């Protein structure tokens, strides 16, 4: 299951070398110019989506605090500064599903919402609060999929597209506004718990159809939704929340989507990409920040 930022331990093979080779290597000089700036790093982070936060909550109190310190403390651990939460789309919490704040369809895209907030969000709210206590200021809430009733396949898993974007019509109607309202309500629930979501996303690896939460989207289809999400955030006085897009599976895949996002450039905050199918080989051609 794909994650946005991962911590990796890299083990290098150790070779036995002769004295001559060792002496040559020891004589090498490395020069570091602290005044030379190449790029800005927004931070490093992790995700406790797909009920990993639930697993953490089942530890003893001492183990919980130890684990949280290892992740987020700048004095006792890694000092990670970004947390990526999964916005649930599932009707239940079976297996490792992330339950939705609106598990059942309200009846249609224009029907009054029927949100359900359990004050937990798969225990991600608790992890977020603990991360904030330890200095984390960047919280990225991202949905792997819209709820199934908003999609062409009627399921939050197995691909399908958001009803209403280009090429994705549904008998139930256009769900773009309802999905935007849904994301805004999620952000508001966190605000009520004194946690500020700084960035929001609505896709994860949109090139993939998977047996878990997934939603297909091209760059043009993403733009069709951002045209609705941007103004909806502004209307809710949440224009400070940055819109991220699109967490493509590979760096080159995301680069290929950029041109299709040009019409909504004013609403974008950060371009997000993974490196499972292609690694970063060159900078993205964008004025926006880029996260991998």
From TrEMBL:
The keyword Hydrolase applies. GO terms for biological process: glucosylceramide catabolic process. Residues 1-18 form the signal peptide. InterPro entries: 6GAL-like (IPR039514), GH (IPR017853), Glyco_hydro_30 (IPR001139). One of its GO terms (molecular function) is glucosylceramidase activity. GO terms for cellular component: membrane. Residues 29-254 form the Endo-beta-1,6-galactanase-like domain. Keywords: Hydrolase, Signal. The keyword Transmembrane does not apply. Transmembrane segments: none annotated. Gene3D superfamilies: Glycosidases. It comes from the Eukaryota. It holds the Pfam family Glyco_hydr_30_2. Belongs to the glycosyl hydrolase 30 family. This is Endo-beta-1,6-galactanase-like domain-containing protein. It comes from Xylaria grammica. The lineage of its organism: Eukaryota, Fungi, Dikarya, Ascomycota, Pezizomycotina.
């Amino acid at each position: 299951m794909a994650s946005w930022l991962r911590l990796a331990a890299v083990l290098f093979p150790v070779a036995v070398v002769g004295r001559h080779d060792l002496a040559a290597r020891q004589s090498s000089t490395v020069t570091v110019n602290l005044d030379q700036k190449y790029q800005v790093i927004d931070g490093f982070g992790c995700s406790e989506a797909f009920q990993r936060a639930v697993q953490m909550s089942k530890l003893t109190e001492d183990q919980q605090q130890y684990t949280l310190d290892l992740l987020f403390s700048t004095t006792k651990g890694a000092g990670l500064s970004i947390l990526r939460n999964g916005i649930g789309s599932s009707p239940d919490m079976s297996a490792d599903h992330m339950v939705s704040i609106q598990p059942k369809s309200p009846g249609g895209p224009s029907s009054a919402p029927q949100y359900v907030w359990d004050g937990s969000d798969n225990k991600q709210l608790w992890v977020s609060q603990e991360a904030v206590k330890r200095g984390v200021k960047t919280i990225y809430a991202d949905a792997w999929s819209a709820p199934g009733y908003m999609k062409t396949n009627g399921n939050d898993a197995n691909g399908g597209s958001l009803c209403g974007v280009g090429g994705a019509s549904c008998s139930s109607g256009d769900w773009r506004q309802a999905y935007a309202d849904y994301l805004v309500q999620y952000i508001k629930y966190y605000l009520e718990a004194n946690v500020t979501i700084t960035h929001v996303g609505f896709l994860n690896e949109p090139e993939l159809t998977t047996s878990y939460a997934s939603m297909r989207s091209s760059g043009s289809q993403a733009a069709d939704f951002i045209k609705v999400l941007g103004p909806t955030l502004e209307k809710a006085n949440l224009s400070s929340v940055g819109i991220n897009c699109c967490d493509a599976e590979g760096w080159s895949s995301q680069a290929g989507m950029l041109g299709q996002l040009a019409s909504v450039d004013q609403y974008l905050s950060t371009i997000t990409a993974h490196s499972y199918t292609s690694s970063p080989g060159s900078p993205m051609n964008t004025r926006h920040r880029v996260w991998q």
